[in-house]
Amino acid sequence: MRADPQIARAMSAHGWFHELAPAHQAHVLARVRLQHFAAGEVLAHRKAPTEDWIGVHTGLVKLAVYNAAGDSCTFSGVPAGGWFGEGSVLKRELRRYDVIALRASDAIFLPVDDFHFLLDHSLPFSGFVIRQLNERMGEFIAAIQNQRLLSVEGQVAAALSQLFNPQLYPFTAQRLELSQEELGLLTGLSRQRVNRALRELERLQLLRLAYNRIEVLDLERLRAYAQRQI
């Protein structure tokens, strides 16, 4: 059966797909689905069975939990190019967080059984998943550390820097199409505090601000700024 052209184009943008053998590429193209979500829409619910490994093709999503009062804790933001949920897929457990679109987004879903098929039969895919898990662990440890030890400016600098992880988020460009409100949702900070932090980082010539856009001028200095505070 011939693959859907739209799905084939979407998958061709993701590096791990090109590492697969042709037969495994065909398997993926026959099984994945591409779905559009409006801003604020839920891609996957916390405590629901984990049925898919999810990739963000376009847009931006966040992984978060909410309590009964509506307070939230954001674990991570995932921009276009990022894939997530390997741990829950591997263990076939209930999902541990809500996945919410922060803007209009297109997501790719690979069913859990097909994820395990690739893991069992494709060495390149297994290698990719191991690297993902290693980088994700580092990201979560850094997020806890940053929240507890960094100033607001440091937290914003660290959050921006994390979006440039080439293993987790290979699509990220120097000019981030990211609003201050979205950055606030990723960091758990108010828009006002994010605005003040960004102005300070701009004053230090680490970034340049425009409408709904943040241009990182010196990524290494931005990372170093956050690390110096620890």
TrEMBL record:
It holds the Pfam family HTH_Crp_2. SUPFAM superfamilies: cAMP-binding domain-like, Winged helix' DNA-binding domain. It comes from the Bacteria. GO terms for molecular function: DNA binding; DNA-binding transcription factor activity; kinase activity. This is cAMP-binding domain of CRP or a regulatory subunit of cAMP-dependent protein kinases. Residues 16-119 form the Cyclic nucleotide-binding domain. Keywords: DNA-binding, Kinase, Transcription, Transcription regulation, Transferase. It comes from Solimonas aquatica. One of its GO terms (cellular component) is cytosol. Gene3D superfamilies: Jelly Rolls, Winged helix-like DNA-binding domain superfamily/Winged helix DNA-binding domain.
